[in-house]
Amino acid sequence: MFLKDLQKNGQATQEHLDKYLNSWGDSDVISAMRHALNGGKRLRAYLAVKGAAAYDIPIDQSIWPASAIEAIHAYSLVHDDLPCMDDDDLRRGIPTIHKKWNNATAVLAGDALQSLGFELVLNPACSEKESVRSELALSLAKAAGGQGMVLGQALDIAAESAQTPLDLDQITALQRGKTGALLGWAVKSGAILAQEDPMPLSLYAQAVGLAFQIADDVLDVQGDPEKAGKRLMKDASAGKATFVSLLGLEQAKARSQHLIDQACDAVSPLGKGADALQQCAKFIISRDS
Fold first, then answer.
1. What would the 3-class secondary structure string for 74-111 be?
2. Which one-letter DSSP state was computed for residue 178?
3. What CATH number corresponds to the domain at position 11?
C-alpha cells in the first residue's frame, strides 16, 4: 500500500513538473533540467504532500512545495555529480548531466533548477497568502544554502582531505545539513502552508533526516549498485568516516531504528494524519536503494 501511494505521489509530482516546463522549449539546458528531474523515489515530495495532508491541505496546493523540493534536490545532485565534486557517471541508473552533455550545461542546468524551486513556492497557486509564500521561500533558502545543504556539502568535501577522520558528532552535524535540511523543509512545508505549529513535523524531520543518511551509509556498504543506480562504496574507498565505519553495521542499523521510533512518536499527536508519515519513516530504513 505504501509503495503504491509513494509511486502515485511521485507520478503526480512528475506530471506537475512536466506541465510546468512544457512551454520552456528544448534547449540543451532545459533538456538537461528535464533529464535531472526524471526518476527517483520522490521521498521529499511525498513528505511535503503528506505533511500538508496532516493539516488538511489539499494536494493542489501541496504539489507546489513538493515539486519545488524535487527541483532543489535535483539541482544539488547535478552539481554533486560534477568532476569537481563527487565525479559520478550515473545517477538514478542513467548518465549524469555532465556525461550526457558537458560540464557547463550541468552547471547551468543546476542553477536553473535551483531558481525553479523558488519560482514554484512563490507561485500564487501554492497559497493565496503572500506571507505564507514568503515564509516558504525564506525557509527553503535557509535549508538549501550556507546554513543547510550547501554547508553540509562543504563540510563533506573538507572531510575528504582532513588529516583526521570526523568523529560521530561531526558526522551528525554534517549530515543534518547535507541530507537532513532538505528533508526537514519538505516535511515542515505542510505546517507552513497550514500556518500551524511546525514543532511535531520539525522533530519528525530531524529524526528522519538522520535515519535516512544512516540508511544510505548502510546501503553504501551492502547495497546493490544496480538497484541504487549509482556507484557504491565511495566513502570507504575515499577513507571517509561514516556512521557505519564509526558505529559498526549492526549498531548503525539499531541507531536508525531508534530514530525512526522517535520520528513516529513525534507525529503521533496528529492522529490519523500521521499514518502516511509514519509509514514513510519505516520505509526509509527498510529500502534497498
1. HHHHHHHCCCCCCCCCEECCEECHHHHCCHHHHHHHHH
2. I
3. 1.10.600.10
Identify the three-state secondary structure at position 223.
coil
The model's pTM is: 0.91
Question: Which is it for the CA torsion 16, 22, 23, 27, positive or negative?
Answer: positive
Cα 136 to Cα 288: distance, rounded to the nearest angstrom: 32
Give the tens place of pLDDT for each residue, 198-249. Answer: 999 999 999 999 999 899 888 888 765 665 555 555 665 556 788 998 999 9
What confidence score (pLDDT) does residue 93 get? 85
The boundaries of the domain holding residue 65 are 2-286
Which helix (DSSP H) or strand (DSSP E) does residue 145 occupy? none
Q: For the chain, how many structural domains are there in total?
A: 1
Q: CA dist 53 to 57, 93, 206, 225, 282, Å?
A: 5, 31, 19, 34, 18
Give yes or no for a contact between 64 and 126, defined as CB atoms under 8 angstroms apart.
yes
